[in-house]
Amino acid sequence: MNLRAPVTLLDVAQRAGVSVATASRVLNGGDRVPRPELQERVKAAAEELGYTPNAQAQALAKSSTNVVGILVHDIEDPYFAAIANGVMRAADERNLLVMLASTFRDAEREIAYLASLRAQRARAAVMIGSRRTDAESLARTASEVGSFLNSGAGLALVSQSGMPAHTIEPDNRAGAAALARELVGLGWRRFAVLGGPDTLATARDRRDGFLAGLADSGLEPVAIESGDFTRDGGHAAIERLLDRGVGADCVFAVNDVMAVGAMSALRQRGVDVPGQLGVAGFDDIATLRDVWPGLTTVRLPLEQMGRRALELAIHGGEPTTETFRAEVVLRESTARA
Amino acid sequence: MNLRAPVTLLDVAQRAGVSVATASRVLNGGDRVPRPELQERVKAAAEELGYTPNAQAQALAKSSTNVVGILVHDIEDPYFAAIANGVMRAADERNLLVMLASTFRDAEREIAYLASLRAQRARAAVMIGSRRTDAESLARTASEVGSFLNSGAGLALVSQSGMPAHTIEPDNRAGAAALARELVGLGWRRFAVLGGPDTLATARDRRDGFLAGLADSGLEPVAIESGDFTRDGGHAAIERLLDRGVGADCVFAVNDVMAVGAMSALRQRGVDVPGQLGVAGFDDIATLRDVWPGLTTVRLPLEQMGRRALELAIHGGEPTTETFRAEVVLRESTARA
DNA sequence: CTGTTAGCGCTTTCAC
DNA sequence: GTGAAAGCGCTAACAG
C-alpha cells in the first residue's frame, strides 16, 4: 500500500472479471442482485484493492446526495450546540452526513454558506437561531432561502418564523409569561428585565412574554435594560442597571448565559443572590445546571427541537410550524428567604 | 422562478453564445482569461439564469474538493466545541466547507465517519479527542487512518499521539504538575485525585502529571478515584470518595466538567468549597468561568489548537507534533482562608 | 441475471 | 483568445 492510487469501480470490476454495472450493483445495493458467486468475487476484489466509492461521482450520477447542512451562529454557544446535537443525532440515524457552519453571527456568511450548501446539492438544511429583523439582510436571506428551496432541497428553521419553510418555534412568550407568574407567586414584586438586542425576535418575545405575565398580576417592570444576547451582554446590562440604582428585587435575563454573566457581576458588586436580588434566565443550558445558586430558568427541549427540525427538513412538503412548549424550572436563584 | 430547474453551465454558455469552456473559464477563474466582452455576456447569462455551479461535478472533474472534516466525541461538550470552533474559523478563512461529525464516543462511528470523509474525497480532516487505549479499536482506527492518509488527504489529531499524522498535544503532564506545585505552594497538603477512565491518555497524563508535581514536594495523594470523563463522572467519583471518608483537603479533577460535577455534589453534601475542601479542574472552559466559587484550573489555548490542527492537516507533509503549553489559573475554589 | 452504453456537470488538454 | 472533445467515477436505462 503505497502512494495515492485511486481505485475505481472499473478496477474492481476488471479484477473480478465482471462489468462495472455488476460491480456497482453488488457494491452499492441496487435493483437486480447478481448471483452469489459473482457477489463474492466482486466483494473480494473490492476488499483486496481497498476500493472506496467516490461519493462525488455517485452524487453526480444519481443527482442526489446524503449531505445535510446545519447553520448556527456560534457552535460554542451551548444553546446552539444542544440543538445542533439533536440535528446530528437524527442525521446519524438516517446515515446522513452533516455539514456544519458557524456563521459567527454574520448575515453575509450565513447567506454564503446556504449558497455553498446549494452548490453541494445538499439534501436539506437546518438553520438555527433567531434572525435579526434588519430589513435588508432579511430580504437577502429570504432570497437565498428561496433559491435553496427552489433547488429542491428541504429546509427547516429553528426560532425563526417568516420564511416559507418548516419552522420550529420554542414557545418563548408563553414560557416567559409562565415564569413571570411563578415568580410573582413566589412573592417577588419589583422586576427588572435584561433584554437582548431588539432586532432579535427571540429576545423580544421572551421579554414581551414576561411583561405579559407580570401584567396578569397587574404588575409592571421597574426597569428594562438591553444588552447583547451573550454572557458579557448580561454582565454589562446588570451593571448599568445597578449604576442607575433602580430598586428591583428580581431580575429576568432573556437567556441563561446573560443571567450567568449578570450573576457574576452581582457577585463582584457584593449583591447577594437571591438574598438581595433574585435572578432568572431562560433555556436551561445543561452545562450551567451546576452554577450556584442554581439558576431558575425556563427549559426548552433543545435536542428534540433539533431532531424534529431535521425530520421536517428532509421530509419536505408544505411549510409547517411546530411549537415546542417551555417549562419553568425553579431553583435557588429565586428562592425567597 | 418555479419548480426545480437545474441550470447548468451549458445553459449559461448557450445563452451567452459561447462554448462551455469559455463559460467555465470566466465563471470559475481559470487559466486563460476570455476577452472582457465575453466575460460580461457570460456573467450576465449566469446571473439571469440563476446559475449555481454543481460542486459535485466540479469535484469530480478536478478530483479535489474544498471539504474538510472534523471528528469530535461530543459537540455539546464545551471542550470539543471550543477546539472545533478554532478549526471552523481557520476553515472559514480558507473558504473550506466543514463536515462535522459527533461520534458520541463510539469508536465504530468514528471509523465509519472517517471512511465517509474519504469517500467524499475530503481534502483533510481533524480528529479531536483522546483515543481509548483499547488495543483492538485502536488497531482498527489506525488502519482507517492509514487508508485515509493513503488517499492523499491530510490529517491532524488533537490530543492523540501514536498515529502517523500531525499531532497537536496539550501539555497535560506539565500543566497538571504545575498546578500541583502551585496548590502545594498555597498550603494544601492532602490531595485526592478524581481521575478519568484509565483508557484515556489525556486523563492518565493529567493524573500522572499531577502526581509528579506532588512528588516534587515529596507528597503523595491520599486517594485516587476514577470516574467517567464527564460531569456525572465527577459527581459520582467525589461521592464515593466522601463515602470512603479519606481525609483530603483538596481535590483535583482531571477536567473542568468533572470538577463542576464534584462541586455540585459537595454542595449537596454540605461541604464548603474551599473552606472544607479545595477543588481544581483542567481546561478552563469558557462557559464555566462564571461558576462560584471560581474554579481553579489549567488553561489550554483550545481555539488556537483547533486552528493549528487545521493548518497542519491541509498543509500535509511529514507528521509533526506540536505541544501547546497549559497555564495555571488560580481562582477562589482553592483559596486558603 | 449481466453487460453496453449513454449520460450526470464541469474541467482541461489540444487544436484552431 | 476560443472551441471541440475527452474524460472524472459512477448509475441507470436498455439490450441481450
Kindly summarize this structure in a few lines.
By secondary structure, chain A is an alpha/beta fold. Chain A is 46% helix and 16% strand. Chains A and B meet through α4, α5, β2, α6 and α7 of A and α4, α5, β2, α6 and α7 of B.
Output the keywords.
3 domains; LacI family DNA-binding transcriptional regulator (chains A, B); alpha/beta; Peripla_BP/Lac1_sug-bd_dom (chains A, B); DNA-binding; homodimer; 337 residues; four-stranded parallel β-sheet; transcription (chains A, B); Rossmann fold; 12 helices; 434 Repressor (Amino-terminal Domain); six-stranded parallel β-sheet; DNA-binding (chains A, B); Peripla_BP_I (chains A, B)
Radius of gyration of chain A: 26 Å
Write down the domain tally of chain A: 3
Shape of chain A: elongated
Quote the CATH topology of the largest domain in chain A: Rossmann fold
pLDDT < 50 runs, ≥5 residues of chain A = none
Average pLDDT value of chain A? 94
Total beta strand runs of chain A: 12
Largest interface pair: A-B, 60 and 62 residues
Domain HTH lacI-type (chains A, B): 7-62
Keywords (chains A, B): DNA-binding, Transcription, Transcription regulation
GO molecular function (chains A, B): DNA-binding transcription factor activity; transcription cis-regulatory region binding
Protein name (chains A, B): LacI family DNA-binding transcriptional regulator
